[in-house]
Amino acid sequence: MDATQLIHPLLALALAPLMAGIVNKTKSAFAGRNGPPVLQPYRDLWRLLHKGAVYSRTTSWILRAGPIVSLAAVVTALAMLPFGGTAAPLSFAGDLIVFAYLFGLVRFLMVAAALDTGSSFEGMGASREVTFSALAEPALLLALAALARMAGSPSLSGLLAGAVANPAVSIPVLLLAAAAVGIVLLAENARIPVDDPNTHLELTMIHEVMILDTSGPDLAFAGYAALLKQWAFAALLVGVLVPWRTGVLWADVALALAAMAAVAVGIGVVESTMARLRLVRVPQLLLAAVACAALAVVLVLR
Amino acid sequence: MQLILASTAIIFLGGLLALAVASRPRAASVLAAVGAIAGSAVGLVPALRAVLGGTHDAIACPWGLPLGEFHVALDALSGLFLVPILVLTAVAAVYGTRYLGHDTGPRVGVSWFFYSLLTCGMIAVVVARDAVLFLLAWETMSLASFFLVAYDDRRESVRHAAWTYLVATHIGTAALIALFVLMARQHGSLDFDHWNAGGMTSALASLCFLLAVAGFGTKAGFMPLHVWLPEAHPAAPSHVSAVMSGVMIKTGIYGLLRILSLIGPPPAWWGWLLIAIGLSSGILGILFALAQHDLKRLLAYSSVENIGIIAMGLGLGVLGTAYAAPTVATLGYAAALWHVLNHALFKGLLFLGAGAVLHAAGTTRIDRLGGLARRMPRTAMAFLFGAVAVCGLPPLNGFTSEFLVFIAALNGMLSGDLLVGATTAAVIAGLAVIGGLAVACFTKACGTIFLGEPRTSEADEAHEAGGTMWATMALLMVACVVVGVASPWLIGRSLASPLAVLCPAPAGLPIDLNVASSPLTGVVLAAAAFIGIALILVLLRRRLLAGRSVTQSGTWDCGYQRPTARMQYTSSSFAQPLVDLFRGLLRPRRDAAPIVELFPTAAHLQTHVGDLFTDRLIAPAFRRVREVLSRLRWIQHGRVQWYVLYIALTLLVLLVWKLG
After folding, report:
1. pLDDT value of position B508
2. Furthest-apart CA pair in chain B: how many Å?
3. Which of B298, B240, B290, B271 is nearest to B111 (CA)?
């Protein structure tokens, strides 16, 4: 194994909270506020790691297992993503499926943990989470399959390797795939227009309501896992949208990091300029993502 | 081969002894279970030898019947189906001794006799090499399982379910008889060994294929032939459901594979048909599962879904053979065979878990349960593992076979033309939808049954499953983990010989299982990394919480002070958004008396999702048949003299026909 393969996982572990900070700063700028410091997510995690915990009397070991399994699965998924010019530590034919299904495992355990509390609000969030993810999953896998066909490689490292062979076909395909991955990024990471991370009503939340009864280090694990998941989807989007390589390692990594920052700003802009969709409208947005991905498949098969 | 016959004899003897001591239920249970274990142990030796070594062993001798002969053989394909049959029937028998432990009367012993007969029938089906013997075995299996389903025959719903099953299985058998007659006429023999592709026109081969899909598909549960599954599985005792769902329906897959290996090189449209069946069974199966209110019905629909995944694998295998793409063919067939094995393990586990819930709380209605994880933690853990496996999530065994279907499709996508590309893209999208819906379905089941607070007093007073029942569930749970983690090694060792039977040398497909085991090695590495990180996090969490205040409190219900168990999210409300989204297919029926007055009196809400095909296709068809046939009812009037006249007239006509 090459030491450069560890660059991305370490960067992700270190910078994922920063990305959330940039999103929040962007939103503050749009709202004309100073907003929390960019490093606030680090402080939140640090504070939570130093707290004790309160558990509901209703809960069992599932509630405690949820955050741990999530964090472990997300870190494993990160190990399959290439970034900039660096190869992924773990790469094999079909790793894109493991990548997608590890997030399925995260969802299973987090939903089970939410239902473990017996709270109707958490049940509501869990129900919405599984509904929307069931529609996001085909969009993600179809988009990745289209890219795989175009790159002629069945692994994430191959299909994000950054080769643009035939621009007339590949640029529309990349854009369509990016649109699909972008919508999935917003849906899977509790972002407007699907979910509002800052809403004040438990009744309207999806992700935040599922961890209402999680506290202390567990909450830190769950929160960190959510930040890393956001990083993973953003890194995937960057891999699709920025297929160019300079050939110099540090320049490629710097370019990719700049693109990550741009994605974070982009999320902030979307959140500031759009309203949240009504819950019954969300499936239509996700079906649009499926349609984009299907169109990309049609283009590459043609 | 002699060992297989000996094993069948031991299992049958166990059943006979159970019948003999039917007046003492406990003794009957023990005798049958001992027979099942001993028979399985004896039978596993040659079965494993055939799978791993690819040996072929046969016995043929004439018998007194006018047709066919007694011809049995054990090759790698038979062996691969024999292993789960033997293992799961033995495990479920042990579970059953405890499960039926509270029942009295001779019906326990009778049920054990039919259980043994079902096991013998399944063994005979996979080793039979003669059409008549095969049909005899097939009918033994079907009738034995009919009597097993009708165990609790005092309940009207159980009798109805058993009746539905009996009719469905015989419609399937009718197609099989037509298939065997066609094949026998073509080759002039009832012996499978004499059947080959030589001399078969493509039209005849296609007709045979369609008959096999209809006949074997009814047993396997291909949509829309699945209608008996959601009726029969909930009605049968749970260990019988586990056997029926885990291995008996797979004999349909076995039959289809056997016929495929005999009728020559497949055209591409067979593959498309199988993939279409797989997609519809998979997606509709899991959708209907999601909408169910009864745990065992839910599991039955989930079996339809998994059969769909197997059909997709088969379809990709056929497509790969037709397009001379050995990688796709190998991966597709390997995925199907591997899922047959994996589904036997985790669906067996889930049905045994459902049985434990039924045993403990007296119901499998999901919305009447809740909070069982604190009352029966071991069962809850086993069920959770089964649920993660059935959702096809890493690192358990269910993922490995779904992963193989995925990479078969990905390979087709990378190499194929437009048609193959579109088909494989549909498989990828379909599997992704199935995966997402399966998570919704099984989080609903696990979450409502085992988590939260008990919704009724029965659930509150539930007790943990006894040692025997738990031991069998633990065994299957461990198998799910081990088979998942050891899959690259196991597939390389065990699937080579069965695949050689499926794609015999003339078809000329080189089999290289590395295309399956090398990506799976990557999966196992990822799984190992995941487990390692999770263990580190467990230690870290323990370290962090050591010496800090860890307190207990009520669930935070947004400031509400008096939450009750009935305020929890129910399984119906959990599934509602998805059911509503797919209401065009599911057609949920609502019966509600809403709250109208300021001081409301009684109100109720009831939802029900019937089966689309039963309601729209099967029931109307049977109604029409009954209408047409009722016109002939004037013949049946109960006067014996007339019946004698009918017989005399028939004889006269036959005489004239024979002489003329």
Report:
1. 53
2. 103
3. B240
**pLDDT tens column, B254-279:** 999 999 988 878 889 999 999 999 99
**pLDDT digits over B111-140, tens only?**
999 999 999 999 999 999 999 999 999 999
From CA B303, how far away is CA B309, in angstroms rounded?
Answer: 10
Interface test with A, best of B331, B423, B569 (most A CBs within 10 A): B569
Range with lowest mean pLDDT among A288-292, B190-194, B270-274, B562-566:
B562-566
Is residue B380 less than 8 Å (CB to CB) from chain A? Answer: yes
User: According to the 3-state scheme, what is the secondary structure of A136-158?
Assistant: HHHHHHHHHHHHHHHHCCCCHHH
List, in order, residues 6 or more apart from B645 with CB less than 8 Å away: none
B-chain CB neighbours of A115 within 8 Å are: 443, 446-448, 451-452, 569, 574
Yes or no, beta carbons of A56 and B578 under 8 Å apart? no
Residue B439 touches chain A, beta carbons under 8 Å:
yes
CB-CB under 8 Å, B522 with A94: yes
pLDDT at B506 over 50: no
How many structural domains comprise chain A? 1
- Alpha-carbon gap, residue A289 to A179, rounded angstroms: 7
| Chain A residues 92-111 with a CB less than 8 Å from chain B | 92-95, 97-98, 100-102, 104-105, 107-108, 111
- Single out the residue of A271, A259, A190 nearest to residue A24, CA to CA: A271
Per-residue pLDDT averaged across A175-203, rounded? 86
Buried b / exposed e over B275-307, threshold 16 CB at 10 Å, is: bbbbbbbbbbbbbbbbbbbbbbbbbbbbbbbbb
The rounded distance, in Å, linking the Cα atoms of B524 and B400 is 9
Report the gap between the CA of B418 and the closest CA in chain A (Å). 6
pLDDT bin (cut points 50, 70, 90) of residue A25 is very high
Whole-number Å distance between alpha carbons of B439 and B431 = 12
Residues, chain B, total? 660
Q: Is B555–A120 a contact, with Cβ atoms under 8 angstroms apart?
A: no
Domain span at residue A157 reads: 3-301
pLDDT of B509 strictly over 60 = no
For residue B377, pLDDT over 60 is answered with yes
Average pLDDT of the residues in A36-45: 94
pLDDT over threshold 70, residue B604: yes
Residue of B nearest to A71 (CA): B534
Q: Any bridge partners for residue B372, and if so which?
A: none
Give the pLDDT mean for B579-592.
89
Strand bridging mode B589-593 / A53-56: unpaired
- Contact list in A for residue B563 (CB cut-off 8 A) is 118-120
Nearest CB among A52, A142, A217 relative to B429 is that of: A142
State pLDDT tens for residues B401-451: 999 999 999 999 988 788 899 999 999 999 999 999 999 999 999 999 999
Give the list of residues 6+ apart from residue B317 with CB closer than 8 angstroms, or none.
B271, B328, B329, B330, B331, B332, B333, B335, B336, B408, B502
Q: Which two tokens stand for residue B659?
A: 């002489």
Mean pLDDT over A224-249 rounds to 90
Q: What pLDDT score was predicted for residue B505?
A: 44
Kindly state the tokens that stand for B57: 């062993």
**Residue contacts between A and B (CB atoms, under 8 Å):** 276
At A78-111, the pLDDT tens digits run 999 998 888 889 999 889 999 999 999 999 999 9
What is the DSSP secondary structure assignment for residue B618, as one 8-state letter? I
B650 in contact with A at a CB cutoff of 8 Å? no
Cβ atoms B504, B261 nearer than 8 A: yes
Count the helices and strands in chain A (H runs, E runs): 11, 1
State CA B495 to chain mean position distance. Answer: 20
Of B371, B437, B530, the CB nearest to A134: B437
